[in-house]
Amino acid sequence: MKGIPAQQVLAELAELRKGDLPTHGGRLFAYVYDPAVPGLDELAAAAYASSAHVNGLDPTAFPSLLRMENDLVGMAAAVLGGGPQTVGSVTSGGTESLILAVKAARDGAPHIAEPRLVMPVTAHAALAKAAAYLRVALDVVPVGADLRVDPADVAAAIGPSTVLVVCSAPSYAHGLIDPVEPIAAAAAAAGVRCHVDACFGGWTLPFLRRLGEPVPAFDLSVPGVTSISVDLHKYAYAPKGVSVLLHRDEALRLPQYFGYADWPGYTMVNPVISSTRSGGPIAAAWATLRHLGDDGYLALADTTRTAVRGLAAAVSAVDGLRLLPVESTVVAFQSTDVDLFVLADELAARGWHTQPQFRHGDIAPSVHLTVTAAVAPRVEEFAADLAASVAAARALGPVELPDGIFELLGSVESVAAALGVGAGDSVLPERMAVINTLLNAAPPAVREQLLVAFLSLLQRPTGVG
């Protein structure tokens, strides 16, 4: 590969970015978190650049990074009910935080030969990933028609090999807060750790409570909760790549560490999964939290609450849509007579990018909206487009799949060909209803196989000149 001038590289990057969904402006209801705070991006970018080449591998070599990490842990502990004994670690995201929470629980119970993890079916899929990586068996507890888990069912699932019980505050799919207090009490009674996954929206819940919302107790202030995780790159509005895992005390955290000295190089001691870590994301998060401060997050929570209320009212006003309970910063809805996958396409055609969610057992498909402060000025516009999109989707009718579709399509290549999707960096079709309908009809195991193979098909080398 021959080197090219810097300006040309940046021009090529700008051209590539034109195909991405919008990260700002309140039109993307998943993946990104936009506070619409003037100057915040520039501050975070400058802080990132100042520490991009700092290496978190050795805190004695770069004490600035150690200080920033300790500050982030301290700020998270203050928000999430931590006490004087609370300790924590800064990770790259919610998945790493959850993997480490599971590792600490597993390695903290070395006498259990076949460790198990108990969690509601609504818990984040990253916990299943953690269990798979760490060879911890899953005991998944179903939820009721109200999408809530019964604490008695969680307690009944705890057995002699259980090393960890997990609950969500809130859950990702529907934004509901699990009954943390009775679940944590059941775990404590059995002598088992209890982790609260607050990665998604946990940062904003304490501020919503201060605004008068009826947020139940969910954090380290709850007896029996031994650890909690929260992503700073979500509702703390830091750039991507920063989460915090808190433990009630140092003894609970110690099994999280990895140490190895039995080789001729340096002794490796890591609190997290990565060894070398860029200081850029940590510095950007530190600058963001310091700049916004307590009052800033309270104001952002208030603005987000306004947006949530407006979107919930907009959904409720449309015949055929059923609003699910709203407890946090998620608006989710199902439908009685509208194909939600066609509806999502109609919204996308009008510039709104939502997240369709597939059926799971008795849980019907839904549409998920992650609501941020940037959405507030756009609520009326969305409401009008939602009504128009529902009318258009109803007129088009549902997608119909041929009988025996899974038998006819024997490989992901044949699926891709049938749907008109290519390999490499080819973009997906503008309308996804057929693909989503196919995936919704597939059993979970088949859906997993299709998507794994499909992602592998997309991720192929290109000839870069």
From TrEMBL:
Gene Ontology MF: a single term: pyridoxal phosphate binding
One Pfam family recorded for the sequence: Pyridoxal_deC
Keyword Amino-acid biosynthesis on entry: no
InterPro entries: GrpII_AminoAcid_Decarb (IPR050477), PyrdxlP-dep_de-COase (IPR002129), PyrdxlP-dep_Trfase (IPR015424), PyrdxlP-dep_Trfase_major (IPR015421), PyrdxlP-dep_Trfase_small (IPR015422)
Gene Ontology biological-process annotations: carboxylic acid metabolic process
Keyword Lipoprotein listed: no
Keywords annotated in UniProt: Aminotransferase, Lyase, Pyridoxal phosphate, Transferase
N6-(pyridoxal phosphate)lysine modified-residue sites: 234
Co-factor(s): pyridoxal 5'-phosphate
Family designation: Belongs to the group II decarboxylase family. Sphingosine-1-phosphate lyase subfamily.
Protein name per its UniProtKB record: Aspartate aminotransferase family protein
Species this protein is from: Dactylosporangium aurantiacum
